[in-house]
Specification:
Elements lengths: L2 E7 L11 H12 L4 E7 L5 H7 L3 E5 L5 H14 L4 E5 L1 H5 L1 H7 L5 E3 L4 H11 L12 E5 L2 E4 L18 H5 L4 E5 L1 E2 L10 H4 L15 E2 L2 H15 L3 E5 L10 H13 L4 E5 L10 H10 L1 E9 L3 H6 L6 H13 L3 E6 L8 H13 L19 H8 L21 H15 L2 H30 L3 H38 L3 H11 L2 H25 L9
Parallel strand pairs: 1-2, 1-3, 3-4, 4-5, 8-11, 11-12, 12-13, 13-14
Antiparallel strand pairs: 5-6, 6-7, 9-10
Helix pairs in contact: 1-6, 9-10, 10-11, 14-18, 16-18, 17-18, 17-20, 18-19, 18-20
Length: 548
């Protein structure tokens, strides 16, 4: 049986710069069970469709995100016209939540795997080979039968993640990526009201009204062994460690053990982890020194808001003080810090928006335009149910296609949001600019933090000097953007709060934050990056490993 596992990306909203770890894990599991798999990752506009037709797969598996659902559906329909008998299976968090919608909207998709994919995908293959008697016995599967959509019973979670083989690394190698993704756990000890995790990792025996998000983690030995294998086999020393929060299941024991193990191995690696803001409470200077010595260069944290009302709405485990202390702690130790932030939600007040803006400005985060971020809602989440119960969901809006289909309690904010959407998101050119600017915050500064460590360990001081210059230049641009964006948003907020004037809002935006201004900022960032890479290679051809 010819099997293709495919990760498709929309270039305008997604980056193919890390492994597609979910589908890579399925690939290794299927291979371990005796099947031959072709694993690919590609931007949709760069996909070699002819090569896929030449391979002539009988089964195609794909992961689906909200931003990739349309390319996945289009591809499914296209490939079925040429290979009508191919079975197409989709999975992932979005597919799990919207299984019925996907099958209803796209007749090219045959099956949806809900939740973890390894065992369900294997059982489907055995069913196709007639080694599994009944499709309705496969737990965790949604499919069509007699013009109806059927949902089989939910599957039981995999008990031990250490029992799974390490993910296949075809996408990493074929796309010449130099950062490897390591998944350390599944599930989460948090319970954020906007998060879809409980629906993806839920325990089927949990109360249907109060789904729990069961956490399971790999052992420290397993995590370190996987990282060391990747370094030894592929020469990759940069890692992106994904987990809902690396400190789960609570405390600092696992984190400290992990740092100790890496230090014992004397590995010159760099990595980023996800942590909750409240982690700073239990993080001693000694632990942070260990983490930094082991290779921690960057952290991501879901702050989400800088006011108590929004934090309660999102059911966050952190306080406003946690947010500030966390950023100050890691910045003091020269560890790159990137945050998740949700500025506008249906219950936003002008007080909360002004408070958020002051926080973003204070910590030089407004230049990343986090004040434009809106709450994206997924079906079934606690916050979605609240929005619906409060009559704020717009009935004509379909959540499958529109995660922003709500109105605001304060109607003045509706006018503000409409203006922001028209100027920044509905305009394709501007939305692309904003996406490219955010890349430098979310990714490029993280890459530079990795490179600073490697250059220091290699004692390549001329390279380190060049990296520091580049980082300084990038931060200079964002500091300027921070001041301009803060001034602009404060004026627009005041306008919306007191007496909305569309022409005045347009004038303020064209004066302070015009498309030409944004374009110039993006171009300057791009030139800094390009010059940095050229200078590195000119200084020493062996510095190519600093070029991400």
């Amino acid at each position: 049986m010819k099997i293709l596992l495919l990760a498709l990306y929309d270039k305008e909203t997604m980056l193919l710069n890390h492994d597609e770890i979910g589908i890579a894990s399925i690939a290794s599991y299927i291979r371990e069970n005796g099947y031959s798999i072709k694993l690919m990752g590609s931007y949709i506009d760069q996909l070699n469709f002819d090569a896929i037709l030449e391979y002539a797969p009988q089964v195609i598996g794909m992961s689906v995100y909200r931003d990739s659902k349309d390319p996945v559906c289009d591809f499914s329909i296209k490939v079925k016209k040429v290979l009508p008998n191919v079975k197409i299976i989709c999975g992932g968090a979005f597919a799990t939540i919207y299984a019925t919608d996907l099958l209803t909207q796209c007749n090219g998709i045959d099956y949806i795997v809900r939740g973890e994919g390894e065992q369900v995908f294997l059982e489907l293959l055995r069913f196709f080979e007639k080694k599994h008697c009944n499709v309705y016995d496969i737990h965790g599967l949604t499919y069509r039968h007699l013009d109806q959509i059927c949902h089989n019973e939910q599957q039981e979670p995999i008990q031990s993640l250490d029992s799974l083989p390490p993910p296949s690394r075809d996408i990493l190698i074929d796309n010449k990526l130099n950062i490897a993704t390591i998944s350390t756990s599944r599930g989460c000890y948090g319970n954020c009201s906007f998060c879809e995790s409980p629906f993806y990792w839920s325990n089927p025996k949990a109360n249907k009204e109060k789904k729990t998000c069961r956490w399971r983690g790999k052992s420290v030995d397993n995590i370190c062994a996987e990282m060391m294998h990747i370094e030894e086999r592929y020469g990759i020393k940069k890692f992106y460690i994904i987990s809902n929060s690396f400190e789960d299941p609570g405390g600092t024991t696992n984190i400290e053990n992990f740092a100790d193990r890496i230090i014992e191995q004397k590995r010159h690696i760099s990595y980023q982890i996800n942590l909750r803001p409240a982690f700073y409470r239990s993080c001693t200077d000694g632990l942070l020194d260990k983490l930094k010595t082991s290779g921690l260069c960057s952290v991501f944290t879901g702050i989400e808001a800088a006011n108590i009302d929004d934090l309660r709405l999102y059911n966050k485990m952190n306080t406003c003080e946690d947010n500030e202390k966390f950023i100050e702690l890691f910045r003091t130790h020269d560890i790159n810090t990137c945050i998740g932030f949700i500025n506008i939600n249906p219950y936003s007040t002008f007080k909360s928006l002004h408070t958020n803006l002051r926080f973003l400005h204070k910590y030089h985060l407004a230049g990343f335009f986090l004040m434009l971020s809106r709450l994206r809602v997924e079906k079934g989440t606690r916050i979605y149910r609240k929005i619906v119960d409060d009559g704020l969901w717009i009935e004509s809006r379909n959540i499958y296609t529109d995660s922003l289909g709500y109105r605001h309690v304060d109607e003045r904010i509706d006018k503000l949001v409409k203006f922001l959407n028209n100027y920044f998101y509905d305009d394709l050119h501007t939305s692309k600019l904003m996406y490219r600017i955010r890349y430098y915050d979310r990714y490029f500064l993280m890459y530079l933090s990795y490179d600073k460590r490697l250059a220091t360990l290699r004692k390549e001081m001329d390279a380190l000097d060049l990296i520091n210059v580049c980082e300084s230049e990038i931060n200079r641009v964002f500091l300027s953007l921070n001041e301009t964006a803060t001034t602009w948003f404060e004026k627009v907020l005041n306008l919306a709060e007191n007496c909305w004037d569309q022409k005045e809002a347009e004038h303020l935006t064209e004066t302070l934050l015009s498309k030409n201004y944004l374009s110039a900022a993006e171009k300057e960032l791009s030139l800094i990056k390009g010059k940095h890479y050229r200078t590195l290679l000119k200084a020493n051809a062996s510095y190519a490993y600093y070029v991400t």
